[in-house]
């Protein structure tokens, strides 16, 4: 974690850095609009000085971009642009959501719990069977791939009520993953620090 501080330049002319215990370091990032910006290692509170009044700084995307223009090259890597981090986190969450949707479900429509695949093809096949089961002339036998507790896969016969029950479970599963994805997108958009972004996980 990187903590940022600022101090007015006109208060630094006679300022000497105080000593403090521990291995934390303070680094001058750059000067901007009459303020000198520093970063401090995680867990270290910058000492209060009677000469220079250090203040914590919330590193917004705008400030990060401005500081990049004045910061030494060595220090630029310490300034996190949350826009780029948001894009990476969104890509990661989107991938996880897709994987969750096709991970499959379990259901006991056949009396015992069976595992059902939920790939895009399986979802399309299930939609077709549900549509067929709703026709006035629909029969009462519908085969669909599933695995029993021993892991044996087969196209097992389901009644109309059974296939509809599994179909509802399919739909509920997909909607739940989509809702979770939507919620995490909102969390990413609201994050203002690297730590908040890191906390957004599938």
What does this structure look like?
The protein is α+β, with helices and mostly antiparallel strands and 202 residues long. It folds into two domains: 79 residues, no CATH class; 115 residues, no CATH class. It is 42% helix and 21% strand. The strands form three sheets. A four-stranded antiparallel sheet has the order 2-3-1-4, covered by helices on one side. Strand 5 and strand 6 form a beta hairpin. The two termini are 21 Å apart.
| Uncertain stretches of 5 or more adjacent residues | none
β-strand percent reads 15-25%
Computed Rg: 28 Å
- Main sheet specs: 4 strands, antiparallel
Number of domains: 2
The strand count comes to 8
Mean pLDDT: 84
Q: Based on the structure, what is the oligomeric state of the protein chains?
A: single chain
SS class: alpha+beta
Main sheet: which strands, in order across? Answer: 2-3-1-4
Q: Give the helix tally.
A: 6
Determine the N-to-C terminus distance.
21 Å
Q: How much helix is in the residues?
A: 40-55%
């Amino acid at each position: 974690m990187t903590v940022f501080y600022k101090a007015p330049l006109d208060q630094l002319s006679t300022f000497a850095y105080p000593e403090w215990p521990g291995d934390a370091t303070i680094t001058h990032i750059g000067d901007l609009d009459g303020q000198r910006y520093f970063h401090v290692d995680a867990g270290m509170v910058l000492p209060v000085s009677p000469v220079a009044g250090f203040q914590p700084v919330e590193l917004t995307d705008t400030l990060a971009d401005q500081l990049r223009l004045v910061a030494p090259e060595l220090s630029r890597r310490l300034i996190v642009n949350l826009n780029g981090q948001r894009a990476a986190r969104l890509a990661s969450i989107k991938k996880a959501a897709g994987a969750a949707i096709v991970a499959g479900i379990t259901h006991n429509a056949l009396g015992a719990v069976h595992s059902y695949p939920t790939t895009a093809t399986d979802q399309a096949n299930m939609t077709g069977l549900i549509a067929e089961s709703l026709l006035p002339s629909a029969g009462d036998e519908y085969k669909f791939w599933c695995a029993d507790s021993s892991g044996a896969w087969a196209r097992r016969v389901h009644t109309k009520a059974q296939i509809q029950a599994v179909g509802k479970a399919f739909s509920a599963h997909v909607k739940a993953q989509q809702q979770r994805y939507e919620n995490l997108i909102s969390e990413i958009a609201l994050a203002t620090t690297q730590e908040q972004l890191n906390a957004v996980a599938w």
